[in-house]
Amino acid sequence: MNMLEGTVTGENGEPTARLDDGTAIRIAPDRKVRPGQAVTIGLRPEHLIPGISVGTPLGGRTMLVEPTGAQTHIVFDLAGQQVTAVVDGEYPARYGAVFEASIASDQVHVFDRGSGMAL
Fold first, then answer.
1. Which architecture characterizes domain 2-112 according to CATH?
2. pLDDT in tens, 36-91
């Protein structure tokens, strides 16, 4: 799982985790978070969907493309951190190109940074 540190804010009435570079990742409304709370966001590689289709758009420069047959692992830069996505093996990933993905808010895992407890 990709782990990113952020702080809970609210945008348009929805809870959001804001990363150090300003990237905002929407959190499902049923998560027990409060504004200003320090959290760790967990993003499973298989939940990062190529393209900007649903949920929070994410993206960055592709740092590694690792074809493994039926799947391809793509490591890209997000907020200065390496994030891995697992996509279909036929996806046309290129080193150095911008990789764009999205993730649904109900697929975003949230942990309290102090206690490590899932929220």
1. Beta Barrel (2.40)
2. 999 999 999 999 999 888 889 999 999 999 999 999 999 999 999 999 999 999 99
Determine the Cα angle at 85 with ends 2 and 6, to 5°.
35
For residue 12, the tally of other CB atoms under 10 A from its CB is: 6
- Of 85, 83, 110, 88, nearest to 7 by C-alpha is 110
Which pLDDT score is estimated for 1? 97
**Length, in residues, of the chain:** 119
Q: What is the DSSP letter of 80?
A: T
Domain ranges of the chain: 2-112
pTM above 0.90, yes or no: yes
Return the SS3 of 47: helix
Tell me which residue of 111, 104, 115 sits closest to 6, measured CA to CA: 111
